[in-house]
Amino acid sequence: MADSGAPQETTALLGGDKNQTDDGVRGDKIRPNVSSSVTARASYRNSWHALRDLDDDVANEPNKERPGMPAKSYSVNADGTASYLSPLEMGRHELYEMVPFAAVFGMQKKERSLSQAFASFAGDLDAMEADQLEFKKSRTHLSDAELEKRRSHASLLLLDELEFDAVMVTSPLIIAVVMASMVQFMVGYNTGVMNAPASVVFPGHSSGSWALAVAAFAIGGPFGAMAAGKLADSQGRKGAFLIDMWIFLVGGLLQTLAIDMYMIIAARFIVGFGSGFCSVLVPIYLGELAPPNLRGMFGTLTQFALVIGILASDLVAFPFATEEKWRYLFSITPITSMLLLLFSPFLLESPRWLLGRDRSSRKARYIIKILRGLRYDHEVETEVSHFVSASQNQHCDGSCENDTVNSGVAFTEMLMTPKVRTLLISCLILQMGQQLCGINAVFYYSTSFFEGVIDNPLLGTTIVGAVNVVATYVALLLMDSCGRRTLILWSSGGMFMCCVVIVLSLLGYFQNIVALLAVNVYVSFFEIGLGPIPWLIVAEMFDAKYVTTAMAACSQLNWVCNFVVGFVFPYLNEYLGPYSFVPFAIVLALTFIFAALKLPETQGTTPEELMDQLVRKNSSVVYHNMNIEDAHNNPIDLEWKLAMEQLKQEDEAAMESGSYNYGFKPIEGVQPPASGSDWQSGMGH
Known about the structure:
The radius of gyration is 32 Å and the shape is elongated. Strand 2 (74-76) and strand 3 form a beta hairpin. With 685 residues, it is an all-alpha fold. It has helices spanning 8-11, 56-60, 87-98, 108-138, 144-162, 171-192, 207-256, 261-289, 295-320, 326-343, 351-357, 362-372, 377-393, 403-416, 418-436, 439-450, 457-478, 484-506, 512-528, 533-541, 544-576, 582-597, 607-617, 628-632, 635-657, 679-684, and strands at 37-39, 74-76, 82-83, 622-624.
């Protein structure tokens, strides 16, 4: 039956007889009455939507057009408000509302599926309306083949337009992505920079002081993550970005100019603070600048920047990991920070943040115009409406200064809702598994771990860093074709087997080279599952309004577990020796069991599932004039076409009546010259 919020005109026919044939119903499909409006109902796969014929004068009154021009599309909500958007603009509006304002690695699949879902949704509306118009003219319906052809053509046209945003990238957006990627590069670089110079930085330090220096990076991380949300709300996304650059600059300078291990520890805390800060800020900043179908790509780029930063720290260590040059290793961070500060005037503020503070903000409109490459004010206003509506839908109500408060309320709401609580607990367990599996023990201490295993430990560390980059690309390919739960199972199971092989190799059952190979395979299995999936499923499992809150909670726990591994592994290596990877193997076994028995597969990622969501979401919306092919044409081109056709008709009519001017008659109102000598004066008349 109909949604209670649906207009009375729509609900009147919902119980119609399926065998009826004289009122537009044929066979086993519900056929609507003749109308220029349609309404989204139930499932498009099993039945046609029921609708009610609205009075033509009423339906077209707000939308009268010149003869020959297509009527503009619009929709009417259950509360009676009308939205004058083209099918393309409606699709972009849905993408804004359903894709979270966060740039997350691997989210491209969800973005593509959403585009396909809306294109199919609108294609069904277009085909149904065409069938109604045909029935109105000839009292016959389009054949199934004609309907499918119409639906397919309309869906493809709209899908092409929706995916155009993925290639429409402006210079300000490119600058923002490059600078955000450079910040993520510094996070990766500082993750691995302490790996190689352990024996050359202030020789004679204790293993405890070095472990604390390494782990201080993870101590600062959660504090930075907490501060990032508040400063991003109060100072703006750009302002918070500048603060983060200064944090990296100060921490990098202290680390480069350190006079003892205590100063190294303090500097690592500050750099870790900046890293935790940007782990929250960068996804939000890029997510609010980018159109919905580019957020996943930008998240992927920043993830690649991070793993490339880890590899770069290994490569730079070859010439500089000595007692005389180790300070050059640490100087990369302040140099990069200064370069980013020099280019910071080119950064733009987040239009979402500006609109959250003032919905009439002219600055926000100017930024949207240059970010999207728009030309006309009405295009800018349409984009503004997308931002405002999506922000309200994702818990940014009124002022973005309330985001922190909303996050606390949203977290409480998540814990009080049984289904959401189960998803949240699943995400938190995966975050623990991601860090306690020991991956950062490899990135923090692989050089010391490989001592005695291979001749050049730094070479082994560099090989691991290179494998990490390649495996990240492989993970991107696998995430488009494999389920998230499946990847977690393969990842945790594969890493468990690698831990077993590593332990057996260290015990002498295999050659040392096998241990090196096992570590590289271990890193590869991490990158295809436990690396990206715990973050990706947050964006896929939760409604958009919960994504930011869930990510904040996951980030805090992730940093805490990161610290535990960074601080404890030197003691594990010292006291357990060849059995140092056994605790990690236990964690991986538990993660595998949890994923096999309790972890739900991510839902809502296929076009069919997302289309069902769209149908339910828009069940009380009435759509008018959903002609995608006409809407696809440029209105200016249509105006010219109509003008040329009108001139052609006038000329043909003049030819038939014999009054057509073939160029031999003088132009009316101009007198011929009196003589050849005064032709100029004749032209003056």
